[in-house]
Specification:
Elements (H helix, E strand, L loop, with lengths): L3 H9 L2 H28 L5 H34 L8 H26 L3 H36 L2 H19 L3 H15 L18
Helix pairs in contact: 2-3, 2-5, 2-7, 3-4, 3-6, 3-7, 4-5
Amino acid sequence: MRSERNLERGKNMSATDTMREEHGVILRVLRCLSASADQAEKEPGLDVESIQKMLEFFRGFADGCHHAKEEAHFFPLARQRGVGCPPASIDSLLAEHQEGRDHIRVMDENLSAAGSGNRQAKVRFLQHARQYVQLLTDHIGKEDHCLFPTADTMLSTADQGALVKAFEELEQQELGAGTHERFHALADELCAQWHVPIPQCSTHQSGCSHS
């Protein structure tokens, strides 16, 4: 459960702060996927069980929670307010969301065979794993360093508050109680396995990022 201090911090966070914190969690699991790909290039087979958990996280947390909030609420409001910057247009970011889903699908399709020693499946899995890590890392960078700072200057306090409320409603209605805690525990488990550091002041405080 979150501490009272963390609960209070979550109440005071803007919608863009929430999305930045969720990015931190996603980036850590991307590092886990990268580490698993590094291992697979040096050793036979793949850690299928661990990678299945990563794909579950990316589907449920990165796409089903974080991207869902952007697509349903943040991007439409950003368009209305004229928020955008050349490296991070809303249309290009939406296209990258779909591209990420395609990479996840191909990784999932090839994972079992790759883990059983199929060379072609392993090559295909690793190719899409590397591309997915690069895609989402660059995507997050565009949002954190271009789109969100622009939004911070153009969205009013009322806009940010409305987004926070909309995010909370989406989480409750679409994902259900306990889902965020489960995904964050899964992220922490993967980081421990693949030796990815978890910041002491971690991103557990709000929305999809709490524990």
